[in-house]
């Protein structure tokens, strides 16, 4: 049996993988796939203008994935975090977005 068997991936010490963790990982895999496809498109077009257009599209995907995975993680931790800690996490994410969006 392969160590990469589907049942091996689903189980962690006899437990099923947490659905939130699985969703976060799936989003990151999808995001990475989009990044790879974009890089291949840039190479295929071989023009600076078109590569810049592809790159601009990626600039919209990255923050969306960050926000979505962070939201999923916070939903999963909502019962374990105090309100104060939750606010600190939200302040940190807000600072990241302010840094990204400011010119």
Q: What this model shows, in words?
A:
The chain has helices at residues 6-10, 19-45, 48-77, 83-101, and strands spanning 11-12, 15-16. The chain has 103 residues and is mainly alpha-helical. It has one domain. The N and C termini lie far apart (53 Å). The model has no long low-confidence stretch (mean pLDDT 84).
In a few lines, what is going on in this structure?
The protein has 103 residues and is mainly α. It has four helices and two strands, in the order αββααα.
> What coarse outline follows from CA principal-axis ratios?
flat
Unreliable stretches covering 5 or more consecutive residues? none
Distance between the termini: 53 Å
Q: What class would the helix/strand composition place it in?
A: mainly alpha
Radius of gyration: 18 Å
Average pLDDT rating: 84
Major sheet description: 2 strands, antiparallel
- Count of structural domains: 1
Major sheet: arrangement of strands: 1-2
So how many helices?
A: 4
Total strands: 2
* Helix percent band: over 70%
Name the helix and strand elements from N-terminus to C-terminus, one letter apiece.
Answer: HEEHHH
Strand content: under 5%
List the topology elements.
Blueprint: H1 6-10, E1 11-12, E2 15-16, H2 19-45, H3 48-77, H4 83-101
Antiparallel strand pairs: 1-2
Helix pairs in contact: 2-3, 3-4
Task: Note the main attributes of this structure.
flat, 4 helices, 2 strands, 103 residues, mainly alpha
């Amino acid at each position: 049996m392969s160590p990469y068997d589907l049942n091996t991936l689903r189980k962690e010490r006899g437990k099923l993988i947490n659905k939130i963790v699985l969703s976060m990982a799936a989003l990151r895999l999808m995001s990475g796939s989009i990044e790879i496809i974009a890089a291949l498109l840039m190479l295929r077009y071989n023009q600076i203008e078109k590569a810049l257009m592809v790159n601009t599209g990626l600039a919209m995907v990255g923050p969306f994935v960050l926000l979505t995975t962070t939201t999923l993680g916070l939903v999963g931790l909502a019962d374990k975090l105090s309100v104060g800690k939750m606010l600190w996490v939200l302040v940190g994410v807000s600072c990241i977005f302010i840094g990204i969006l400011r010119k």
